[in-house]
Amino acid sequence: MPQSWSPSSWRSRPIVQVPDFPDNDALNAVEAQLATYPPLVFAGECRELERRLAAVVDGEAFLLQGGDCAESFEEHGPNNIRDFFRVFLQMAVVMTHQAQMPIVKVGRIAGQFAKPRSSNIETVDGVSLPSYRGDIINGADFTERSRLPDPERQIMAYRQSAATLNFVRALATGGYASLGNVHKWMLDFVEETPQWREVARRIEDAIFFMRACGIDPEHHPELRATEFFTSHEALLLGFEQALTRQDSTQNDTPYVGTSGHLLWIGDRTRQPDYAHVEFARGILNPIGLKCGPSLANDDLVKLAAILNPDNRKGRLTLICRFGADKVGDHLPRLVETVKREGLNVVWSCDPMHGNTVTVNTMKTRPFDRIIAEIETFFAVHRDMGTYAGGIHLEMTGKNVTECTGGLFEVKAEDLHERYDTLCDPRLNARQALDVAFRVAELLKLQRTRRGKTVMAAE
Ligand code: PEP
Ligand code: CO
Fold first, then answer.
1. In angstroms, what is the C-alpha Rg of the chain?
2. Which residues does phosphoenolpyruvate bind (predicted)?
3. Which mutation among 65, 69, 136, 267 tests ligand 1's pocket best, with the greatest number of atoms within 8 A of CB?
4. 424 annotated among ligand-binding-site residues
5. Tens digits of residue pLDDT in 150-179
6. 353 marked as part of a ligand binding site
7. Strand, coil or helix: what is 130?
8. What are phi and psi of 110, to 5 degrees?
9. What does the pLDDT look like over 271-321, one tens digit per residue?
10. Which residues have C-beta within 8 Å of that of residue 419, sequence separation ≥ 6?
Protein backbone atom coordinates (compact mmCIF):
# COMPACT_ATOMS: atom_id res chain seq x y z
CA MET A 1 0.00 0.00 0.00
CA PRO A 2 1.42 3.39 -0.95
CA GLN A 3 0.64 5.01 2.40
CA SER A 4 0.24 3.19 5.63
CA TRP A 5 -3.26 2.00 6.30
CA SER A 6 -4.95 1.17 9.56
CA PRO A 7 -8.61 0.49 10.40
CA SER A 8 -8.77 4.11 11.62
CA SER A 9 -6.74 5.86 8.90
CA TRP A 10 -10.02 7.01 7.28
CA ARG A 11 -10.46 9.37 10.23
CA SER A 12 -7.84 11.77 8.89
CA ARG A 13 -9.55 12.05 5.50
CA PRO A 14 -12.42 14.31 4.46
CA ILE A 15 -15.75 12.56 4.81
CA VAL A 16 -19.32 13.05 3.57
CA GLN A 17 -22.66 11.55 4.59
CA VAL A 18 -21.83 11.34 8.30
CA PRO A 19 -24.47 11.87 10.95
CA ASP A 20 -24.06 14.53 13.60
CA PHE A 21 -23.98 12.53 16.83
CA PRO A 22 -24.90 14.80 19.74
CA ASP A 23 -22.76 12.95 22.30
CA ASN A 24 -19.26 11.91 21.23
CA ASP A 25 -18.48 10.08 24.47
CA ALA A 26 -21.52 7.88 24.03
CA LEU A 27 -20.48 7.20 20.42
CA ASN A 28 -16.94 6.26 21.44
CA ALA A 29 -18.26 3.95 24.16
CA VAL A 30 -20.48 2.11 21.68
CA GLU A 31 -17.66 1.71 19.17
CA ALA A 32 -15.37 0.39 21.93
CA GLN A 33 -18.07 -2.07 22.94
CA LEU A 34 -18.63 -3.28 19.37
CA ALA A 35 -14.91 -3.86 18.98
CA THR A 36 -15.14 -6.53 21.71
CA TYR A 37 -18.00 -8.44 19.99
CA PRO A 38 -17.53 -11.54 17.84
CA PRO A 39 -17.10 -11.11 14.09
CA LEU A 40 -20.18 -11.73 11.94
CA VAL A 41 -18.27 -13.26 9.03
CA PHE A 42 -14.91 -14.92 8.55
CA ALA A 43 -11.93 -13.96 6.39
CA GLY A 44 -12.02 -17.41 4.76
CA GLU A 45 -15.59 -16.84 3.59
CA CYS A 46 -14.64 -13.48 2.09
CA ARG A 47 -11.77 -15.13 0.22
CA GLU A 48 -14.17 -17.77 -1.01
CA LEU A 49 -16.48 -15.07 -2.33
CA GLU A 50 -13.53 -13.46 -4.08
CA ARG A 51 -12.86 -16.78 -5.82
CA ARG A 52 -16.49 -17.00 -6.89
CA LEU A 53 -16.36 -13.46 -8.24
CA ALA A 54 -13.09 -14.22 -10.05
CA ALA A 55 -15.08 -16.85 -11.96
CA VAL A 56 -17.54 -14.10 -12.87
CA VAL A 57 -14.68 -11.96 -14.22
CA ASP A 58 -13.76 -14.96 -16.40
CA GLY A 59 -17.32 -15.25 -17.71
CA GLU A 60 -17.89 -18.57 -15.94
CA ALA A 61 -20.48 -17.45 -13.38
CA PHE A 62 -23.01 -14.67 -12.76
CA LEU A 63 -23.60 -12.49 -9.68
CA LEU A 64 -27.09 -12.07 -8.23
CA GLN A 65 -27.14 -9.42 -5.51
CA GLY A 66 -30.34 -8.18 -3.92
CA GLY A 67 -32.37 -7.26 -0.89
CA ASP A 68 -33.93 -4.31 0.89
CA CYS A 69 -32.84 -0.76 0.23
CA ALA A 70 -32.71 -0.47 4.02
CA GLU A 71 -33.33 -3.19 6.58
CA SER A 72 -35.41 -2.05 9.53
CA PHE A 73 -35.67 -2.92 13.20
CA GLU A 74 -39.42 -3.13 12.94
CA GLU A 75 -39.50 -5.65 10.08
CA HIS A 76 -37.11 -8.07 11.74
CA GLY A 77 -39.41 -11.09 11.61
CA PRO A 78 -38.65 -14.64 10.44
CA ASN A 79 -41.27 -14.46 7.68
CA ASN A 80 -39.67 -11.47 5.98
CA ILE A 81 -36.26 -13.09 5.96
CA ARG A 82 -37.56 -16.46 4.83
CA ASP A 83 -39.75 -14.98 2.10
CA PHE A 84 -36.86 -12.93 0.77
CA PHE A 85 -34.54 -15.92 0.84
CA ARG A 86 -37.09 -18.09 -0.89
CA VAL A 87 -37.72 -15.78 -3.83
CA PHE A 88 -33.99 -15.08 -4.09
CA LEU A 89 -33.31 -18.81 -4.43
CA GLN A 90 -36.09 -19.23 -6.96
CA MET A 91 -34.50 -16.47 -9.02
CA ALA A 92 -31.10 -18.12 -8.73
CA VAL A 93 -32.46 -21.52 -9.79
CA VAL A 94 -34.17 -20.07 -12.85
CA MET A 95 -30.97 -18.27 -13.78
CA THR A 96 -28.74 -21.28 -13.13
CA HIS A 97 -30.96 -23.45 -15.25
CA GLN A 98 -31.28 -21.08 -18.18
CA ALA A 99 -27.69 -19.91 -18.21
CA GLN A 100 -26.20 -23.24 -17.19
CA MET A 101 -23.64 -21.64 -14.95
CA PRO A 102 -23.21 -21.02 -11.21
CA ILE A 103 -25.03 -18.02 -9.80
CA VAL A 104 -23.10 -16.28 -7.01
CA LYS A 105 -25.75 -15.34 -4.44
CA VAL A 106 -25.15 -12.20 -2.38
CA GLY A 107 -27.94 -10.70 -0.24
CA ARG A 108 -28.26 -7.04 0.70
CA ILE A 109 -29.01 -8.34 4.15
CA ALA A 110 -27.73 -8.79 7.70
CA GLY A 111 -26.16 -5.32 7.85
CA GLN A 112 -27.81 -3.08 5.23
CA PHE A 113 -28.86 -0.35 7.65
CA ALA A 114 -27.04 2.94 6.95
CA LYS A 115 -28.32 5.21 4.17
CA PRO A 116 -26.75 8.14 2.33
CA ARG A 117 -29.22 10.97 1.75
CA SER A 118 -29.45 13.73 -0.84
CA SER A 119 -30.28 16.28 1.86
CA ASN A 120 -29.32 16.55 5.55
CA ILE A 121 -32.69 18.03 6.35
CA GLU A 122 -36.25 16.99 5.64
CA THR A 123 -39.00 19.60 5.75
CA VAL A 124 -42.65 18.69 6.23
CA ASP A 125 -45.36 21.36 6.60
CA GLY A 126 -42.75 23.98 7.42
CA VAL A 127 -41.03 21.83 10.09
CA SER A 128 -37.40 20.87 9.38
CA LEU A 129 -35.69 17.88 11.02
CA PRO A 130 -32.55 15.86 10.28
CA SER A 131 -33.14 13.34 7.46
CA TYR A 132 -33.68 9.69 8.29
CA ARG A 133 -30.34 7.90 7.71
CA GLY A 134 -31.24 4.30 8.37
CA ASP A 135 -32.19 2.45 11.56
CA ILE A 136 -28.55 2.10 12.60
CA ILE A 137 -28.42 5.91 12.97
CA ASN A 138 -31.86 7.38 13.72
CA GLY A 139 -35.58 6.63 13.49
CA ALA A 140 -37.83 7.13 10.47
CA ASP A 141 -40.66 8.77 12.48
CA PHE A 142 -40.84 12.47 11.79
CA THR A 143 -40.24 13.66 15.36
CA GLU A 144 -37.29 15.49 16.84
CA ARG A 145 -36.56 12.68 19.25
CA SER A 146 -36.65 9.95 16.64
CA ARG A 147 -34.46 11.83 14.17
CA LEU A 148 -31.70 12.46 16.71
CA PRO A 149 -28.77 10.13 15.89
CA ASP A 150 -28.44 7.56 18.68
CA PRO A 151 -25.26 5.42 18.90
CA GLU A 152 -27.05 2.68 20.87
CA ARG A 153 -28.79 1.81 17.61
CA GLN A 154 -25.48 0.36 16.39
CA ILE A 155 -25.65 -2.31 19.08
CA MET A 156 -29.21 -3.12 17.97
CA ALA A 157 -28.08 -3.29 14.31
CA TYR A 158 -25.18 -5.58 15.23
CA ARG A 159 -27.49 -7.93 17.14
CA GLN A 160 -30.12 -7.93 14.40
CA SER A 161 -27.44 -8.63 11.78
CA ALA A 162 -26.14 -11.55 13.85
CA ALA A 163 -29.63 -13.02 14.25
CA THR A 164 -30.49 -12.53 10.59
CA LEU A 165 -27.23 -14.07 9.49
CA ASN A 166 -27.77 -17.02 11.79
CA PHE A 167 -31.20 -17.60 10.30
CA VAL A 168 -30.09 -17.33 6.67
CA ARG A 169 -27.17 -19.65 7.33
CA ALA A 170 -29.64 -22.15 8.80
CA LEU A 171 -31.97 -21.75 5.81
CA ALA A 172 -29.06 -22.11 3.39
CA THR A 173 -27.54 -25.22 4.90
CA GLY A 174 -30.24 -26.89 7.00
CA GLY A 175 -32.23 -28.47 4.18
CA TYR A 176 -34.66 -25.63 3.46
CA ALA A 177 -32.70 -24.61 0.36
CA SER A 178 -32.42 -28.10 -1.11
CA LEU A 179 -33.02 -28.22 -4.83
CA GLY A 180 -36.01 -30.48 -4.32
CA ASN A 181 -37.62 -27.87 -2.07
CA VAL A 182 -36.84 -25.00 -4.39
CA HIS A 183 -38.50 -26.95 -7.13
CA LYS A 184 -41.60 -27.51 -5.00
CA TRP A 185 -41.90 -23.75 -4.47
CA MET A 186 -41.69 -23.26 -8.22
CA LEU A 187 -44.97 -25.11 -8.46
CA ASP A 188 -46.59 -22.13 -6.71
CA PHE A 189 -46.08 -19.98 -9.74
CA VAL A 190 -46.09 -22.41 -12.65
CA GLU A 191 -49.62 -21.43 -13.50
CA GLU A 192 -48.63 -17.77 -13.80
CA THR A 193 -47.36 -17.70 -17.39
CA PRO A 194 -46.56 -20.29 -20.07
CA GLN A 195 -42.87 -19.34 -19.98
CA TRP A 196 -42.61 -19.78 -16.22
CA ARG A 197 -44.48 -23.09 -16.45
CA GLU A 198 -42.10 -24.31 -19.12
CA VAL A 199 -38.97 -23.48 -17.11
CA ALA A 200 -40.41 -25.12 -13.97
CA ARG A 201 -41.20 -28.22 -16.04
CA ARG A 202 -37.66 -28.43 -17.35
CA ILE A 203 -36.20 -28.11 -13.88
CA GLU A 204 -38.55 -30.85 -12.73
CA ASP A 205 -37.37 -33.04 -15.61
CA ALA A 206 -33.76 -32.50 -14.58
CA ILE A 207 -34.54 -33.50 -10.99
CA PHE A 208 -36.43 -36.62 -12.08
CA PHE A 209 -33.56 -37.53 -14.37
CA MET A 210 -31.04 -37.15 -11.55
CA ARG A 211 -33.21 -39.25 -9.23
CA ALA A 212 -33.51 -41.95 -11.90
CA CYS A 213 -29.72 -42.00 -12.08
CA GLY A 214 -29.57 -42.54 -8.33
CA ILE A 215 -28.75 -38.96 -7.32
CA ASP A 216 -31.16 -37.84 -4.63
CA PRO A 217 -30.86 -34.08 -3.98
CA GLU A 218 -31.42 -34.73 -0.26
CA HIS A 219 -28.22 -36.75 -0.02
CA HIS A 220 -25.84 -34.49 -1.91
CA PRO A 221 -24.42 -31.47 -0.12
CA GLU A 222 -24.22 -29.43 -3.39
CA LEU A 223 -27.95 -29.95 -3.95
CA ARG A 224 -29.09 -29.95 -0.36
CA ALA A 225 -27.42 -26.73 0.74
CA THR A 226 -26.65 -23.49 -0.99
CA GLU A 227 -23.89 -20.93 -0.70
CA PHE A 228 -25.11 -17.51 0.32
CA PHE A 229 -23.11 -14.38 1.08
CA THR A 230 -24.04 -11.05 2.66
CA SER A 231 -23.34 -7.47 1.64
CA HIS A 232 -24.11 -3.89 2.55
CA GLU A 233 -22.93 -0.34 1.95
CA ALA A 234 -19.96 0.37 4.24
CA LEU A 235 -21.22 3.84 5.07
CA LEU A 236 -21.06 4.15 8.85
CA LEU A 237 -17.31 3.86 9.15
CA GLY A 238 -17.08 3.94 12.97
CA PHE A 239 -19.22 0.80 13.04
CA GLU A 240 -17.23 -0.82 10.22
CA GLN A 241 -13.95 -0.02 11.93
CA ALA A 242 -15.13 -1.59 15.18
CA LEU A 243 -15.84 -4.81 13.29
CA THR A 244 -12.57 -4.80 11.35
CA ARG A 245 -10.31 -7.54 12.61
CA GLN A 246 -6.94 -9.03 11.77
CA ASP A 247 -7.10 -12.35 10.00
CA SER A 248 -4.97 -14.48 12.28
CA THR A 249 -4.79 -17.36 9.79
CA GLN A 250 -2.48 -15.44 7.46
CA ASN A 251 1.17 -14.55 8.01
CA ASP A 252 0.88 -11.03 6.72
CA THR A 253 -2.24 -10.61 8.91
CA PRO A 254 -4.41 -8.59 6.57
CA TYR A 255 -7.53 -6.97 7.90
CA VAL A 256 -11.03 -8.12 7.17
CA GLY A 257 -14.28 -6.20 7.60
CA THR A 258 -16.33 -8.73 9.53
CA SER A 259 -19.71 -6.98 9.24
CA GLY A 260 -20.47 -8.69 5.90
CA HIS A 261 -18.80 -10.55 3.05
CA LEU A 262 -18.96 -7.94 0.31
CA LEU A 263 -18.90 -4.27 1.28
CA TRP A 264 -19.66 -1.54 -1.21
CA ILE A 265 -18.94 2.14 -1.57
CA GLY A 266 -21.95 4.26 -2.52
CA ASP A 267 -22.19 6.60 -5.46
CA ARG A 268 -22.11 9.60 -3.12
CA THR A 269 -19.04 8.55 -1.12
CA ARG A 270 -16.57 7.34 -3.75
CA GLN A 271 -14.27 10.41 -3.88
CA PRO A 272 -10.79 8.84 -4.34
CA ASP A 273 -9.04 10.69 -1.49
CA TYR A 274 -11.94 10.63 0.96
CA ALA A 275 -12.66 8.47 3.97
CA HIS A 276 -14.84 5.71 2.49
CA VAL A 277 -12.35 4.76 -0.19
CA GLU A 278 -9.52 4.95 2.34
CA PHE A 279 -11.31 2.50 4.63
CA ALA A 280 -12.21 0.05 1.87
CA ARG A 281 -8.72 -0.17 0.38
CA GLY A 282 -7.26 -1.81 3.47
CA ILE A 283 -9.70 -4.65 4.06
CA LEU A 284 -9.48 -7.92 2.19
CA ASN A 285 -13.23 -8.28 1.44
CA PRO A 286 -14.53 -8.13 -2.11
CA ILE A 287 -15.41 -4.46 -2.68
CA GLY A 288 -18.31 -3.07 -4.67
CA LEU A 289 -18.13 0.39 -6.22
CA LYS A 290 -21.31 2.13 -7.28
CA CYS A 291 -20.81 3.88 -10.62
CA GLY A 292 -23.25 6.65 -11.53
CA PRO A 293 -23.27 9.18 -14.38
CA SER A 294 -20.92 11.56 -12.55
CA LEU A 295 -18.07 9.02 -12.37
CA ALA A 296 -15.29 10.34 -14.63
CA ASN A 297 -13.12 7.86 -16.54
CA ASP A 298 -9.97 9.14 -14.80
CA ASP A 299 -11.54 8.71 -11.40
CA LEU A 300 -12.46 5.14 -12.19
CA VAL A 301 -8.83 4.43 -13.09
CA LYS A 302 -7.67 6.12 -9.87
CA LEU A 303 -10.20 4.22 -7.78
CA ALA A 304 -9.26 0.88 -9.29
CA ALA A 305 -5.59 1.58 -8.56
CA ILE A 306 -6.39 2.44 -4.94
CA LEU A 307 -8.90 -0.33 -4.29
CA ASN A 308 -7.31 -3.10 -6.32
CA PRO A 309 -3.63 -2.26 -6.81
CA ASP A 310 -2.76 -5.88 -7.65
CA ASN A 311 -5.61 -6.10 -10.17
CA ARG A 312 -6.89 -9.22 -8.40
CA LYS A 313 -9.82 -10.92 -10.08
CA GLY A 314 -12.91 -10.85 -7.87
CA ARG A 315 -11.70 -8.02 -5.64
CA LEU A 316 -13.58 -5.24 -7.42
CA THR A 317 -17.18 -5.21 -8.64
CA LEU A 318 -18.41 -2.16 -10.54
CA ILE A 319 -22.11 -1.73 -9.80
CA CYS A 320 -23.41 0.48 -12.61
CA ARG A 321 -26.51 2.58 -11.89
CA PHE A 322 -27.01 5.13 -14.59
CA GLY A 323 -30.71 5.05 -15.41
CA ALA A 324 -32.33 3.64 -18.55
CA ASP A 325 -31.92 6.93 -20.39
CA LYS A 326 -28.25 7.42 -19.47
CA VAL A 327 -26.72 3.95 -19.47
CA GLY A 328 -26.08 4.07 -23.22
CA ASP A 329 -24.13 7.32 -22.82
CA HIS A 330 -21.99 6.38 -19.84
CA LEU A 331 -21.41 2.64 -19.75
CA PRO A 332 -19.46 2.46 -23.06
CA ARG A 333 -16.90 5.05 -21.92
CA LEU A 334 -16.30 3.21 -18.64
CA VAL A 335 -16.05 -0.16 -20.39
CA GLU A 336 -13.60 1.34 -22.87
CA THR A 337 -11.51 2.73 -20.01
CA VAL A 338 -11.45 -0.59 -18.17
CA LYS A 339 -10.48 -2.42 -21.36
CA ARG A 340 -7.73 0.06 -22.14
CA GLU A 341 -6.27 -0.24 -18.65
CA GLY A 342 -6.63 -4.03 -18.59
CA LEU A 343 -8.53 -3.94 -15.30
CA ASN A 344 -10.13 -7.07 -13.90
CA VAL A 345 -13.61 -6.19 -12.72
CA VAL A 346 -17.03 -7.72 -12.36
CA TRP A 347 -19.52 -5.63 -14.34
CA SER A 348 -22.81 -5.60 -12.47
CA CYS A 349 -26.00 -3.69 -13.31
CA ASP A 350 -28.05 -1.90 -10.64
CA PRO A 351 -31.15 -0.95 -12.67
CA MET A 352 -32.88 0.55 -9.62
CA HIS A 353 -31.10 3.70 -8.48
CA GLY A 354 -31.03 5.59 -11.78
CA ASN A 355 -34.71 4.95 -12.45
CA THR A 356 -36.47 6.50 -9.47
CA VAL A 357 -39.37 8.82 -10.32
CA THR A 358 -42.04 10.52 -8.24
CA VAL A 359 -45.66 9.69 -9.06
CA ASN A 360 -48.51 11.14 -6.98
CA THR A 361 -45.89 12.29 -4.43
CA MET A 362 -44.61 8.69 -4.03
CA LYS A 363 -41.12 7.57 -5.05
CA THR A 364 -41.40 4.65 -7.44
CA ARG A 365 -39.56 2.84 -10.22
CA PRO A 366 -41.32 1.83 -13.42
CA PHE A 367 -40.67 -1.82 -14.22
CA ASP A 368 -40.16 -1.07 -17.93
CA ARG A 369 -37.34 1.31 -17.19
CA ILE A 370 -35.67 -1.26 -14.96
CA ILE A 371 -35.83 -3.80 -17.77
CA ALA A 372 -34.68 -1.22 -20.32
CA GLU A 373 -31.54 -0.47 -18.30
CA ILE A 374 -30.77 -4.18 -17.95
CA GLU A 375 -31.21 -4.75 -21.68
CA THR A 376 -28.96 -1.85 -22.60
CA PHE A 377 -26.38 -3.05 -20.08
CA PHE A 378 -26.25 -6.45 -21.81
CA ALA A 379 -26.28 -4.86 -25.28
CA VAL A 380 -23.32 -2.60 -24.48
CA HIS A 381 -21.29 -5.56 -23.22
CA ARG A 382 -22.26 -7.58 -26.25
CA ASP A 383 -21.17 -4.79 -28.60
CA MET A 384 -17.92 -4.15 -26.74
CA GLY A 385 -16.99 -7.79 -26.34
CA THR A 386 -17.07 -7.68 -22.53
CA TYR A 387 -18.99 -9.77 -20.05
CA ALA A 388 -22.19 -8.66 -18.32
CA GLY A 389 -21.48 -10.29 -14.97
CA GLY A 390 -24.14 -9.37 -12.46
CA ILE A 391 -27.37 -7.80 -11.42
CA HIS A 392 -28.05 -5.77 -8.26
CA LEU A 393 -31.69 -5.39 -7.19
CA GLU A 394 -33.70 -3.78 -4.44
CA MET A 395 -36.35 -6.38 -3.75
CA THR A 396 -38.39 -8.12 -1.10
CA GLY A 397 -40.17 -11.45 -0.78
CA LYS A 398 -43.38 -9.66 0.16
CA ASN A 399 -46.19 -8.56 -2.07
CA VAL A 400 -45.52 -4.83 -1.76
CA THR A 401 -46.68 -2.14 -4.19
CA GLU A 402 -43.63 0.08 -4.50
CA CYS A 403 -42.49 -0.26 -8.14
CA THR A 404 -45.05 0.18 -10.93
CA GLY A 405 -45.66 -2.25 -13.80
CA GLY A 406 -44.44 -5.80 -14.30
CA LEU A 407 -46.25 -8.87 -15.46
CA PHE A 408 -48.90 -8.51 -12.78
CA GLU A 409 -49.20 -4.76 -13.28
CA VAL A 410 -48.87 -2.58 -10.19
CA LYS A 411 -50.61 0.66 -11.16
CA ALA A 412 -49.61 4.15 -10.03
CA GLU A 413 -52.90 4.47 -8.14
CA ASP A 414 -52.19 1.20 -6.25
CA LEU A 415 -48.83 2.37 -4.88
CA HIS A 416 -50.21 3.46 -1.51
CA GLU A 417 -51.73 0.01 -0.83
CA ARG A 418 -48.65 -1.77 0.47
CA TYR A 419 -45.90 0.82 0.31
CA ASP A 420 -43.75 -0.40 3.20
CA THR A 421 -40.20 0.62 2.34
CA LEU A 422 -38.37 2.97 4.67
CA CYS A 423 -36.22 4.18 1.83
CA ASP A 424 -36.22 3.30 -1.90
CA PRO A 425 -39.01 1.36 -3.68
CA ARG A 426 -38.38 -2.40 -4.02
CA LEU A 427 -39.50 -5.00 -6.51
CA ASN A 428 -42.10 -7.32 -5.01
CA ALA A 429 -41.66 -11.10 -5.19
CA ARG A 430 -43.35 -11.50 -8.57
CA GLN A 431 -41.62 -8.50 -10.10
CA ALA A 432 -38.29 -9.85 -8.86
CA LEU A 433 -39.00 -13.24 -10.44
CA ASP A 434 -40.08 -11.51 -13.62
CA VAL A 435 -36.67 -9.77 -13.71
CA ALA A 436 -34.95 -13.10 -13.07
CA PHE A 437 -36.68 -14.76 -16.04
CA ARG A 438 -35.72 -11.91 -18.34
CA VAL A 439 -32.12 -11.83 -17.11
CA ALA A 440 -31.98 -15.61 -17.54
CA GLU A 441 -32.89 -15.18 -21.22
CA LEU A 442 -30.20 -12.54 -21.68
CA LEU A 443 -27.69 -14.79 -19.94
CA LYS A 444 -28.54 -17.65 -22.20
CA LEU A 445 -27.92 -15.47 -25.25
CA GLN A 446 -24.69 -14.17 -23.79
CA ARG A 447 -23.45 -17.65 -23.06
CA THR A 448 -24.33 -18.93 -26.53
CA ARG A 449 -22.61 -15.95 -28.13
CA ARG A 450 -19.48 -16.60 -26.11
CA GLY A 451 -19.26 -20.05 -27.61
CA LYS A 452 -20.39 -22.04 -24.59
CA THR A 453 -22.89 -24.75 -25.30
CA VAL A 454 -26.34 -24.19 -23.98
CA MET A 455 -28.37 -27.29 -24.65
CA ALA A 456 -31.38 -25.95 -26.43
CA ALA A 457 -34.60 -27.57 -25.35
CA GLU A 458 -36.70 -25.45 -27.65
C1 PEP B 1 -28.33 1.99 -2.46
O2 PEP B 1 -27.78 1.01 -3.01
O3 PEP B 1 -29.30 1.88 -1.70
C4 PEP B 1 -27.80 3.34 -2.77
C5 PEP B 1 -27.99 4.38 -1.99
O6 PEP B 1 -27.16 3.36 -3.95
P7 PEP B 1 -26.29 4.50 -4.68
O8 PEP B 1 -25.08 4.73 -3.83
O9 PEP B 1 -25.97 3.82 -5.98
O10 PEP B 1 -27.16 5.70 -4.84
CO1 CO C 1 -31.55 2.20 -2.39
1. 21
2. 108, 290, 321
3. 267
4. yes
5. 999 999 999 999 999 999 999 999 888 888
6. yes
7. strand
8. 60, 45
9. 999 999 999 999 999 999 999 999 999 999 999 999 999 999 999 999 999
10. 362, 400, 401, 402, 425
The predicted model gives 194-200 an average pLDDT of 82
End-to-end CA distance of the chain: 53
Closest CA to 103 of 52, 67, 57: 52
Whether 382 has a binding-site annotation, put simply, is no
> Environment class of residue 335 by beta-carbon count within 10 Å: exposed (0-12), middle (13-18) or buried (19+)?
buried
Cβ atoms of 423 and 400 within 8 Å: the answer is no
Instruction: Looking at the CA of 365, name the nearest ligand.
Output: 2
Reference 62, options 5, 15, 101; nearest CA is 101
pLDDT confidence of residue 410: 87
Query: Which protein residues are within 6 Å of ligand 1, measured from CB?
Result: 69, 116, 266-268, 290, 321, 353, 424
The residue whose C-alpha atom lies closest to atom 10 belonging to ligand 1 is: 267
Total of domains in the chain: 1
Task: List, for residues 32-48, the tens digit of each pLDDT value.
Answer: 999 999 999 999 999 99
**Confidence band for 2, pLDDT divided at 50, 70 and 90:** low
Whether residue 186 is contained in a domain is answered as no
Q: Report yes or no on 324 lying in a domain.
A: yes
Q: Which of 106, 131, 236, 268 to probe ligand 1 with, by most ligand atoms within 8 A of CB?
A: 268
pLDDT at position 454: 45
pLDDT, tens digit, for every residue of 112-151? 999 999 999 999 999 999 999 999 999 999 999 999 999 9
Is position 286 within any domain?
A: yes
The pLDDT of residue 456 is 44
- We report the CATH number of the domain holding residue 81 as 3.20.20.70
Of the candidates 330, 324, 263, 329, the residue with the CA atom closest to the CA atom of residue 299: 330
DSSP E strands, 220-305? 229-233, 244-246, 255-257, 262-265, 287-291
Report the residue among 72, 290, 326 best suited for mutation to probe ligand 1: largest number of ligand atoms under 8 A from its CB.
Answer: 290
- Percent of the chain beyond pLDDT 70? 97
Q: Rounded to an integer, what distance in angstroms lies between the CA atom of residue 16 and that of residue 158?
A: 23
Q: Is residue 204 part of a domain?
A: no
Report the separation in Å between the CA atom of 267 and the middle of ligand 1, taken as the mean of its atom positions.
Answer: 6
Strand bridging mode 357-359 / 362-364: antiparallel
Q: What is the pTM of this model?
A: 0.96
